[in-house]
Design goal:
The protein is of the alpha+beta class and about 70 residues long. It has one domain. About 20% of the residues lie in helices and about 30% in strands. The chain is built from 2 helices and 5 strands; from the N terminus they run E-E-E-E-E-H-H. The strands form 2 sheets. The protein has a 3-stranded antiparallel β-sheet, covered by helices on one side. The chain has a two-stranded antiparallel ribbon with strand order 1-2. The longest helix is centred in the C-terminal third of the chain and has 8 residues. It binds zinc ion. The site of zinc ion has 7 residues, from strand 5.
């Protein structure tokens, strides 16, 4: 039975796909990654696994940081 669409997001660090709630959301503000759970944080949302390895790599990803 189809219980509805679960939004899927892709980790910008490792490319793994997962349900939205399983990934951390960040926003690029002024070339820096800011945890963007708050709706008040504006900007382009970036999703990343909840793992230090992925977050570390993402924070050094110039391509991602330039997306602002
Ligand atoms: Zn990842």
């Amino acid at each position: 039975m189809n219980r509805g669409h679960i939004p899927e997001r892709t980790c910008r660090s490792c490319g793994r796909k997962g349900p939205q709630f399983g990934l951390l959301r960040f926003v690029v503000i002024g070339g820096r990654l800011v945890a963007g759970q708050l709706k008040s944080v504006r900007g382009k949302g970036i999703y990343c696994c909840n793992e230090n390895v992925c977050r570390e790599r993402l924070s050094r990803n110039k391509k991602v940081l330039k997306a602002d």
